[in-house]
Amino acid sequence: KAGVTQTPRYLIKTRGQQVTLSCSPISGHRSVSWYQQTPGQGLQFLFEYFSETQRNKGNFPGRFSGRQFSNSRSEMNVSTLELGDSALYLCASTPGEGAPIRETQYFGPGTRLLVL
Amino acid sequence: GESVGLHLPTLSVQEGDNSIINCAYSNSASDYFIWYKQESGKGPQFIIDIRSNMDKRQGQRVTVLLNKTVKHLSLQIAATQPGDSAVYFCAENWGAPAGNKLTFGGGTRVLVKP
Question: Nearest-CA distance from B66 to chain A in Å?
């Protein structure tokens, strides 16, 4: 099976712009989660989508949003970009059934976003 | 998990020796723990996991130990190889009743000396 894919791999934006990142999960996986990775804050959970609905949410401002399509592909959007949004954005997928059986999350290579 | 900023704790180990990486987790309600390995320019790669009803689990060259009393997790790598050089993260899953939400530790950099 192909792994999690993310596009684009690299992106440069300027402050105030908005950006959309895309994630295609492993075939058959229905849950997609997004994480932000920075040197200062490490890996932080943004949100999880399952069956086109947000199922879990982290502590990020409303400028960060996401959605999931019927084929389980997901996008995340960041509006009004700030310098501090420069990070590696990682997407992870699981089959999606969740608790009581916790599932291993498999990560994509990430999209590196630089905000100037 | 804690952030350690730009200066990750580093474990320097001789090739062929065993490595032990430690992690303290934050939530006593966490019921699932995972170790990931991240190489430069790549996303985290699953190594091994353990559920809260276990205290030890073994994989190929790796062993995870869980001590719920002190909320401590460790990863042991046997016969460390140059390809094991990477940053290692522990993660705990304690999100909503349903779903998957990981909280990561700050990471430990492992450097394998030939």
Answer: 16
State the smallest CA–CA distance between residue A55 and chain B in angstroms: 7
Q: Is the pLDDT of residue B2 over 60?
A: no
Q: For testing the chain A interface, which of B8, B33, B100, B108 should be mutated: the one with the most A CBs within 10 Å? A: B100
- Per the DSSP assignment, residues forming a β-bridge with A21 are A76
Test the A interface: residue of B40, B42, B50, B101 with most A CBs within 10 Å:
B101
DSSP string, chain B: ----TT---EEEEETTS-EEEEEE-S-TT--EEEEEEE-TTS--EEEEEEETT-SEEE-SSEEEEEETTTTEEEEEESS--GGG-EEEEEEEE--SSSS--EEE---EEEEEE-
Quick one: three-class SS letters along A58-108?
A: CCCCCCEEEEECCCCCEEEEECCCCHHHCEEEEEEEECCCCCCCCCCCEEC
Among chain A residues, the shortest Cα distance to B93 is held by A102
Which carries the bigger pLDDT value, residue A99 or residue B54? B54
| Residue B59 clears pLDDT 50, i.e. is over it | yes
Interface contact flag, A55 B49, Cβ < 8 Å: no
Q: What is the mean pLDDT of residues B93-113?
A: 83
Backbone dihedral region for residue A84 (phi beyond 0: left; psi -120 to 50: alpha; all else: beta): alpha
